[in-house]
Amino acid sequence: MRVKFILPALTEATNPYWRPIKYSLFPPLGLATLAAYLPDDWEAELQDEHVEPLRLDDAPELVVIQVYITNAYRAYALADIYRSRGSYVCLGGLHVTSLPAEAAAHADSIFLGPGEETFPQFLRDWQQRRPQPRYESSVRTLVGVPPIRRDLIRRELYLVPNSIVVTRGCPHHCDFCYKDAFFEGGKSFYTQPVDDALAEIDRLPGRHLYFLDDHLLGHQRFAASLFDGMRGMGRLFQGAATVDSILRDTSLLEKAAAAGLRSLFVGFETLSERNLRASNKRQNLGRDYAQAIERLHALGIMINGSFVFGLDDDGPDVFARTVEWAVKQGITTATFHIATPYPGTDYFKRIEAEGRLLHRRWDQYDTRTVVHQPGPLLTAEQLKTGYDWAYREFYSWANITKASLAHTSLKHQIKHFAYAGGWKRFETLWNFMIKTRQLNSMRPLLEAILAKVQGPRGTLNPAPADFIPLPIVQ
Ligand code: SF4
């Protein structure tokens, strides 16, 4: 039996503004996780169109395609091709869960929510020749999940092949986030058994890890045990967490730093209390962002700040205010987004009910394109122009220098400058390394170069990172 897992490329891969490096960071872990449920004697193949051209001259018995909003049209086209050849096609992922009827027109079976329970169920049904057209996840557990089929991943094509996910979901409920829709009908935040997570980490070669969990510090007891277990493993890792978790009066962050945490993706999203309230981002309300940043910097943890433009309280001054603030705070890298109402979210429902959706061309719902009429204080044109300006301005050499100088130690200043500059200003070099399939060789090189600015390692205040603080790709 031959099974093909496909992550189609989003349409923007052909767009001149597309940054190949952004999509050559992480392998498709979700598909490699599903592949682990196949019987041992089945043949499996995993293709990621972001990093390699798809081979489309085959006709496997089963094709499993992961669909997210901007790759949906491409995913449907591929599904149609394989179905016309007699392959059985399964579609799953965030977009399928949000718009199941749309996806069902291109699939033999669709999967709503996480697949750890439903995919093995489907495999049993399919072998007994009674597969269902629709599988909806309800039981949520990561106990007994088999080890990810990392052997299917072409590590050399990714800058960060050692990505890992040890939890699912998030304890919060921001109204613009996919999370609630994806996990509807069951638990929306749960963790792997700590021993399984540690065993998975142990299996990964090298030093780098990137935790792709929505909120690595979301379950305090789990995270504390994980970091205790990781201590002494010699790992360096990145992850994501919320502002409130950074400010908690516990030693969790110190444990994380001692275990190797060197950069954190933090969802600041907006400096406006009104926007926070309207977005139900309660975990950020009344929090002292500057204090959170100071705490991370004191532990040698670099910050990738996430910001959303175009929420209803934003006026034309939001871009300059946000960039100025982020630079002043010494945030290493910033990810800016144009507010985007994703189908299935409360934000989408509100914007749709108010008649403010400009269109439903999903391939443009990429957080770089304005797809809804912004609030009363901003025009769509101002939003797009301001967003583009914010990126240019934040990553100007003048501001990279200024933000670097916000750190008190010279080592941090140099590191910040090198990382921020390397991430955003050396596009030609990244593209060359991707084209020549040498991306994998960049990591040790960067480690070696950056290790020169490392200082002696303390227990609670570990050495600076020796890797790029790569922004998470949403
Ligand atoms: S904290 Fe992040 S992952 Fe959690 S609900 Fe909000 S946006 Fe989503």
TrEMBL record:
SMART domains the record matches: Elp3
UniProtKB keywords: Iron, Iron-sulfur, Metal-binding, Methyltransferase, S-adenosyl-L-methionine, Transferase
Keyword check for Iron-sulfur: yes
Listed cofactors: [4Fe-4S] cluster
SUPFAM superfamilies linked to this entry: Radical SAM enzymes
Keyword Metal-binding attributed: yes
MF GO annotations: 4 iron, 4 sulfur cluster binding; catalytic activity; cobalamin binding; metal ion binding
Domain (Radical SAM core) ranges: 156-388
UniProt xrefs under InterPro entries: BchE-like, Cobalamin-bd, Elp3/MiaA/NifB-like_rSAM, Methyltransferase_Class_B, rSAM, rSAM_horseshoe, rSAM_sf
PANTHER family: ANAEROBIC MAGNESIUM-PROTOPORPHYRIN IX MONOMETHYL ESTER CYCLASE-RELATED, BLL1977 PROTEIN
Protein name: B12-binding domain-containing radical SAM protein
Organism this protein belongs to: Hymenobacter jejuensis
